[in-house]
Write a structure and sequence with these properties.
Elements (H helix, E strand, L loop, with lengths): L16 E2 L6 E2 L14 E2 L15 E8 L6 E6 L5 E5 L6 H13 L3
The structure holds zinc ion (2 copies).
């Protein structure tokens, strides 16, 4: 089947979004996949950036991984429990990152 007028775009899209966890308005950079304020993400990608995932569950930041300055956030989908690691972005809130590190230190997963 040929899709002549389907106009499906598979390019990276730069999109703004409103965080469904804390309500923060997030300016998209094309790489943004989590909220810089509360670090929550959303399960929308099968592969990074493709937005092909139908789950759309919220993804909770569960812990930090790695060492300075290459930290990654381990996200877990609250709906399907899938885990994914995401690099910390430059504009992520330091407070949120520290809070996550502190929380992780007290919660053995
Ligand atoms: Zn948020
Ligand atoms: Zn999911």
């Amino acid at each position: 089947m040929l899709q002549s007028n389907g106009q499906k775009k598979f390019q990276r899209t730069i999109e703004d979004f409103t965080c469904e966890h804390c309500g923060e308005f997030v300016k998209g950079t094309g790489y943004t996949n989590h909220c810089p304020k509360c670090l929550w993400s959303k399960h929308v990608d099968k592969n990074p950036g493709d937005r092909a995932e139908a789950c759309c569950g919220m993804m909770e930041p569960t812990r930090l991984e790695g060492t300075t300055p290459h930290y990654r956030i381990v996200h877990r989908c609250v709906r399907c429990k899938m885990k994914r690691k995401n690099d910390i972005a430059k504009n992520d809130s330091n407070e949120a990152i520290i809070a996550l590190a502190t929380k992780a230190a007290h919660t053995r997963m």
